């Protein structure tokens, strides 16, 4: 291995280059950075698909700056590449957050493929009427007014001669009786 950290015909050993650079060898540091740049560009462009080249280059430069500023925190007993890749990943995430990356897809393009709203079960109304028909007349009238005819509580109270409080109590009792009928029927 040469002083700059190259094995003949092999990729440069980034860890060895950084150790040498941290020892004061400026040439090793320049070589290390020049070796990192194309790798970082490739990683960032691949992960930031759809972003323009200038934006990606800004992220590469932010990554290189972070590496430069934090180089003293790297544990020289560990490989350098995972440390560099982690910094690149964090810088990319930060840049995407700042950009507020959102994907906007017009719904009109997919309108024919979207599911339609489910249609009501035609037997549901009949089943509800059958169960309600088993209740005492006042309870049945109250549930028909509120649930089947979908009138408001004030309207139903006026029709049945009940105050708001009395209507709530009557509704609670009617629903309790309806639940008992359903349970007895095994529904």
TrEMBL record:
Residues 127-178 form the RNA polymerase sigma factor 70 region 4 type domain. GO terms for biological process: DNA-templated transcription initiation. Keywords: DNA-binding, Sigma factor, Transcription, Transcription regulation. Residues 37-102 form the RNA polymerase sigma-70 region domain. It comes from the Bacteria. It holds the Pfam family Sigma70_r4_2. One of its GO terms (molecular function) is sigma factor activity. Belongs to the sigma-70 factor family. ECF subfamily. This is RNA polymerase sigma-70 factor, ECF subfamily. It comes from Paracoccus homiensis.
């Amino acid at each position: 291995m040469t002083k700059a950290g190259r094995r003949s015909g092999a990729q440069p050993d980034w860890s060895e280059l950084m150790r040498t650079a941290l020892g004061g060898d400026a040439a090793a540091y320049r070589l290390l950075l020049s070796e990192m740049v194309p790798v970082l560009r490739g990683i960032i462009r691949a992960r930031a698909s759809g972003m323009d080249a200038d934006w990606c280059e800004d992220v590469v430069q932010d990554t290189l700056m972070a590496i430069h500023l934090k180089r003293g925190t790297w544990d020289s007993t560990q490989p350098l590449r995972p440390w560099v890749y982690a910094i690149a990943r964090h810088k990319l995430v930060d840049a995407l957050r700042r950009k507020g990356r959102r994907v906007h897809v017009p719904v009109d393009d997919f309108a024919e493929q979207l599911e339609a709203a489910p249609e009501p079960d035609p037997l549901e109304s009949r089943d509800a009427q059958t169960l309600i028909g088993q209740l005492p007349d006042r309870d049945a009238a109250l549930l028909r007014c509120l649930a089947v005819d979908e009138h408001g509580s004030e309207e139903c109270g006026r029709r049945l001669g009940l105050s708001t409080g009395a209507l709530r109590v009557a509704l609670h009792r009617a629903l309790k009786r309806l639940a008992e009928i359903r349970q007895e029927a095994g529904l």
